[in-house]
Records
---
Amino acid sequence: MKMETSYLGLELSSPLVVGANPLTERIDEIKAMEDAGAGAVVLFSLFEEQLTLSKAELNDLLAGGGGKARALATMPDHGRIQMGPLGYLEHIRKARAAVGIPVVASLNGSPRRQWTQYAKLVEQAGASAIELNLYYVPTDPELEPRALEDAYYEAVRSVRREVAIPVAVKLNPFFSNLVYSAQRFEEAGADGLVLFNRFYQPDVDLEHRTVKPRITLSHADEARLPLRWIGILRDRLKLSLSASSGVHNAHDALKMVAVGADTVQLCSVLLRQGVEQIRIIQRGMAAWLNAHDTDLASLRGSMSQHNAQDAASFERAQYMRTLDSYTTP
Ligand SMILES: Cc1cc2nc3c(=O)[nH]c(=O)nc-3n(C[C@H](O)[C@H](O)[C@H](O)COP(=O)(O)O)c2cc1C
């Protein structure tokens, strides 16, 4: 079964891409991902704080120091943070030397930060593409939503100007009008959008009266948010779309392709069950396509909002009907 896929202008052997996660800190795991059939690997992120803080400040913050420690405390993993910007460039080099599949570097930070210089270094280190994970939690009541959104587009535009490799943007789902924003990202030069970044919400420890970071792996239901938005965006944009959140098996992955995803990113399933899942999911996809006498290219986008029999299902009409369909036990 042909599983070749074009993503960000790169030719991939499979639509299954490993999403940014801590397994990519190890070169042997990245090799295992390639062996299991991954089309590409997105490396764990380099955080903006790693570029702006000195090593001493960073260590102090990781040890629970004050000030910006609050921001760092919500980061998913502290071990890799010690790698630092130079270590991250070295990791890209090693990963590229170890595997033939594209290796995507991930830069994670506020849209209001200048990413251009480091983006250039990441390109020089051999990254096949950049995934920009723009993450910001606005709490300033004076900050106009428009100004913040413009900062997102400008961040992408400036990185795009600086590098020749493709640039994808990993989005959060909280834009007021995602279709508008997605089009602005496309105009700013993004080669692809990844839907969606998962927000790691803080939790409260009642006993100690502290706010703690708590990372949870995804549930299958979480796939429905990117499923809806990829379906809505597919026929409105030319750029690549990649699904991320809640894809745990072959059916989940096929559904994402059906609404229009070019690639499907796997993370929680690999952390729970190991990278061999890539092979299992890929085989499951091929078996389903064979059994239904179709192929990936024909399935792709066949159930986007534009192509779906019931286009309204992607919008508000769905809401009333869904609530109405519930029967109390
Ligand atoms: C432990 C862990 C670490 C992660 N690290 C990153 C990261 O460094 N950069 C990033 O963009 N996303 C990161 N993610 C988010 C994943 O790439 C992915 O978008 C998210 O988990 C949703 O996909 P899933 O449902 O397959 O897990 C991380 C997720 C987990 C669970």
Note: The chain has a mean pLDDT of 89.
---
Amino acid sequence: MVGSSLEYVDSINLSHGATKEITDPTTEAVREIEKKALAVGLKLLRSRVRHLGTEENLLIMKSIYAWLEERIEMRFKTNVIDILVEDDRIKGVILEDGTKLLADNVVIAVGREGATTLTQLCKKHKISMSNNHVDIGVRVETNDLIMEEINKHLYEGKFIYNTSVGTQVRTFCSNPSGHVVIENQNGTMLVNGHSFRDPKLGTHNTNFALLVSHKFNEPFNEPNEFAHMIGRLANRLSMGGVIVQKYGDIIKGRRTTEKRLKEGFVIPSLKEALPGDLGLVLPYNTMKSLIEMIEALNHVTPGIASEHTLFYGVETKFYSARPEVDMNFETRIKGLYMAGDGAGITRGLAQAGANGIYIARHILSEATK
Ligand SMILES: Cc1cc2nc3c(=O)[nH]c(=O)nc-3n(C[C@H](O)[C@H](O)[C@H](O)COP(=O)(O)OP(=O)(O)OC[C@H]3O[C@@H](n4cnc5c(N)ncnc54)[C@H](O)[C@@H]3O)c2cc1C
């Protein structure tokens, strides 16, 4: 069912101008990459990738917006601050200015920026929540040439690796010819990446995230705050920004200086990053996991573990606390649904779209019963 929702989301993107290009993960070339990966304990997650690109995504969104505008009412800059509930049944929402909007069904999909509001709503209305992990790591940047095979055949090589210290590391959000960017997460400066479809707007570098999963056991239950603290430490050491370090310097246990960075073969796409020492920021297990992963990747894409490869830190993927929902994403309050990244249910555009479609279909099927 989720698969078909994803395909439906894809078909909507296509009808609003998305590229027809999609990677084929079943070719002989991909099999060869998979074989090399398996030999060193890396698992390749095969998937079809339709790369929209930052600028194409904007055009698709504009086209979807124009289509929707004639069919539904949309309100912007309109904060929902509470929900209306009677006898455990949803009745509507309350806006910041006190206006009450009545509804038989409400879907809360407030994204990561609304995760705190969502947590407050859940607490107030006694919907249980859980979260005990967070992903912490770096954004890796290297020359396109080093990543050529993976970029050409997979666009995004999704690999996972189990390290000797018991953590799991994964690659995420690969951007051939892309840019590393700063992401402001509620005042903590973190790293992210993106790429354009138009090669003229691109660089000669590929970037991707390397993320180490951190799971906490009782009694500690603030994984997001833990990651924020690490991010803020990097900010502190780089005068409010993020740190870039050459992989060779990480292995030597020394700081990357302006001079050492200039001597490197990878020209950083994020000019604002300050050359520094991520060894002073990342916990031992996190750093060890990253090193083991990059050394394993070196067997699949030789050169990725060269001294010139850049690590930017810190990159974090927060898992929003997840409200208790049933298989239709409905909470204990009848007619109240939770969806998307803010509810810790999805972690990407296509998934979030599919989540919305799934709920919409369920609401429609309930209404026609
Ligand atoms: C820099 C960056 C790069 C990314 N790149 C990719 C990528 O390449 N591929 C990919 O698949 N995903 C990417 N993502 C992730 C993707 O953007 C999210 O997974 C997706 O947008 C989640 O959708 P959502 O509907 O859950 O939340 P959102 O898209 O965040 O939408 C939530 C909306 O709710 C609104 N809102 C919040 N609180 C309230 C409130 N109280 N009342 C009313 N409205 C409220 C917000 O303003 C927002 O408009 C990227 C994210 C970032 C930050």
Note: The mean pLDDT is 94.
